[in-house]
């Protein structure tokens, strides 16, 4: 039984009448492993988090699945939400797997997807890959990383949270931002000093 120490409710199976219509599939009797949506800002060191998650044999980590979707705008938000519902509910289809496998960068950043794809290419059975992923999904913590405000609407995020998906927001360390700005200001001061010195040297040097 999972132990929750962060104040979030555990992944739960509610009665079908207690959920919204778009995320009813999130209710899976008997599945109580945590589901985590990792919202990572740029330069928030999320790659290190992903690398650590890839080392854990009871974690299914999937990197930005929605960036493989072919559309943009509101339609993309709907497709992204539906895809995440299928991921968290262990209900990915063959078409979903082919979509995930088409993004080589995402596959390379997910040890689990890399393993599933390699086994699929050896066996040539896509349904076997779907079944294996569903089996691992039901017995593992599922973590999906997505950039915030790019693929999902705030309403969708709220709905995921209400269904027990833990939302973790990674931001860039403000100390790093301050340090970078201080470095930039220091560089600008050195450049201005160098320009002033060169200008002074040019004034003191007689023309040929």
Automatic annotation (TrEMBL):
One of its GO terms (molecular function) is N-acetylglucosamine 6-O-sulfotransferase activity. One of its GO terms (biological process) is sulfur compound metabolic process. Signal peptide: none annotated. PANTHER family: CARBOHYDRATE SULFOTRANSFERASE, LD35051P-RELATED. This is Uncharacterized protein. It comes from Rhizochromulina marina.
